[in-house]
Amino acid sequence: MSVLESPSSALETPGLASNSASPERRRSPWPRFLLGRILGGVGAVFGACTLVFIMIAATGNPIRLLLAGAASDEEIARLTAEHGYDRPVLVQYLVFLRDVATGSFPPSLRMGVNPFGPVLTALGNTLALTILAIIIGALAGLVIGYLTVVLRNRFVVNALLTGIFALQAIPSFFLGIVLVLLFGLILPIFPTSGSGTPLHLVLPALTLAAVVAPGIARVFRTSLLETLGQDHVLAARAKGTPAAPFLRRHVIANALAPVISLLGVQSGSLLAGAILVESVFAWPGLGALTVDAVTNQDYSVVIAAVVVIATTFVTTTVLADIVVAILNPQFRVER
Amino acid sequence: MDLILEDGPLLRVENLSVSFGRPDALTPIVHGVSFDIRAGECFGLVGETGSGKSVTGLSIAGLRSPHSGIQTGRVSIGSRQLPEARDTAAMRAWRRDEVGVIFQSPTTALNPRLSVREQLIEALPRATPRGERTRQARELLDRVGVPRATERLDAFPRELSGGLAQRVMIAMALARGPRVLIADEPTTALDVRVQRHILDLIDELRQDLGLAVLLISHDIGVVGDRADRLGVLRSGHLVESGDTARILTAPADPYTRALIEANRVEGAHTAAAPTGNEPPREPLLEVRDLTKRFRRAPRRGPVPPAAVDSVSLSIGRGESVAIVGESGSGKTTLARMITGLTAPTSGALSLAPQLGIAPANPRIARAQYVFQDQFSSLDPRWSVAAQLSEPLKNRGISGDALPGEIGRLLGEVALDPALATRYPAQLSGGQRQRVGIARALASEPDFLVADEPVSALDALVRAEVVALLDRLRRERHMTLVLITHDLSIVSALSERVVVMRDGRIVEDAPTHTVLTSPTHPYTRELLEAIPGTRIAALNSPHPLPER
């Protein structure tokens, strides 16, 4: 309670005076926080890679799985030795870790090259889609949430709330298909498949934004209503603060905190949602790449993709945590 | 500023009525309340929870939401009229220029996200340059007695103690030089000594600035000490109003009389002297050098001092002891260690052996806890019968014997046994606290620890619960440990007082001695800060000197 307490407060609370840290000695919480988050993130990526390795090792010799029945035993043994699958598991694990750290994965069976480059390209496409979806979804969610609180027309508010609820109940791939039909057949303004122009991003981004918006709208609505009921909002009104700064500084800014936390949690899992949407719109992202690789049993690509997805997921989550912390006054250090 | 006649009232409230709800289903809250306040005068408004006193204050301040219900009557300050609720610009100007408001809970009335500087600057005229406003903000903090104002400007609300936060709140209310100050329970959330400092500050500002002060409180002791005139509000009706001394000595309304009586009975200034022939008690609980040190919060400052620091204490069987202290004095931590809810860091604690049942954690069953907050200490999804049957089942009472035992317990705390089927939300505050006491009794404890058992209750209910605890203690010869920050209920309930400060015991003596001749200066200060001096003086044969 009393980080800033000082001898002068002895006037009222002598007990706290001895409890105090003088302002000069107040250390910034940032270095410790950042170090903790980054180390935690590195640990999570390491753990994810290890899990991938264990799952592959547990399914047996990949060469045998791939060529069973199609090649002679001698041939399989030769290929196994060539790819190093006959070495002790620990050696394989260390080699695997080295590959991951340097980004040099074994050549893809289909592409014939290190799949790291293509995976990164696909990641770029996925990130473009996800970030655009988050921006659209968050803005739409905030606006809808705000409207449901300030509008006084009960009918409109109920319509908005029902709409949000319905949107949340529709699976994104179904919404995607509906959009494809709508814009492909009836209203051909946006391309419904593939990539190439920025316009290709519109429909997949809208579909994915529909996943983001309802949650944001509902959390923001609840948070706004809660903030409006707080004493400090009444106190700010008592000061005669004009409407615009009153809403901005005392209501909206305060109500944003849980929304930002939610975005942080969602941004990670949205990567997973992107996979479905990408396949509906044939958007060349990580999702499509991974699904293809799994179908073709292209291990090298699967490994590269999973490692990249895990790293992206962890990075996004850590970044979101840091953004939440920046916006939290608890972390502000004296100017 | 209008020209005001020398003695004419500044704030006039005429026939103010407020109703809540939709236009087709209005619930009246305030019924035709009228009063006025002169410049430099303090008018006190007393009433229980739900009496409409806060709604009256908010209506005058122009802070009621324009969308909930309707408000009729006339409110004016000088020649200026309270504008129509629909006229938002005029209403904002009214709030900004005419009225300053102080709220009950200072820590939640400040925006946690903004520094003191930001919040003060916002209250000052926007046309003034920022640098000048910072200077004015610093002056305001100086004016309300915030030490080291320059540094405090950059503090966030969570870094301020309750008293400091309330001073900042007062500075904010004064920023635009209002003529009327509305203080809605300004000290209810504060410790008794801090309460005194804040009320002193309001008095001083009222005199220096000629403010008309509307002091709203549930505590007739507080209002009686400070107000020149007072009004008593009950169910939205002003049942009585007039000169404070006249009302305190000769209340016309029975309700006012009951309020004054409830306060006087609790008055700490009278306590029976020990007769000197009580038999020596066999010790029930022995505590030696008990210490509790909480781990410091991560990333925060140096190691804090021990919450409880080498406390030694002996409590006899059947004795009633009050542990008194302010927030942070360690009284609750001590109580929790005694009952086995918190493990001590070091020290010894022994409980006299006792016959009977031996459940999993013997100490918890032998000590029972009555909590301050009767809302959160009863499970909202359990009926009263269910709340009570759990400890009874632990004692091996079950089946057919249960309903009878539950009825007996409810009877013992003076509740209608028909309430057994109700849920906590369907009970009043006083009824809930009685259920809490019955639940504690259900375990047949050796001793009862009551942690601020009445501080969340209205005056009349509070007196009833105190009387109930006193009766139970006498009838059951029960050992009672009362934890409180408020010396005024001690005389009614306790034979002995232990005063704690900063985790240590500073005084431990019979109640009569502590209340009449305290040895420690801190105890004296606590005693002097108790509100209700005027009521006590008016009613006691030896009036206390004016302080």
From TrEMBL, chain B:
Look up the domain of life of the source.
Answer: Bacteria
Q: Which Pfam families match?
A: ABC_tran, oligo_HPY
A GO molecular-function descriptor: ATP hydrolysis activity
CDD domains given for it?
ABC_NikE_OppD_transporters
Keyword tags: ATP-binding, Nucleotide-binding, Transport
Which SUPFAM superfamilies does UniProt cross-reference here?
Answer: P-loop containing nucleoside triphosphate hydrolases (SSF52540)
PANTHER family, from UniProt? D,D-DIPEPTIDE TRANSPORT ATP-BINDING PROTEIN DDPF-RELATED, TRANSPORT ATP-BINDING PROTEIN
Designated name of the protein: ABC transporter ATP-binding protein
Organism ancestry:
Bacteria, Bacillati, Actinomycetota, Actinomycetes, Micrococcales
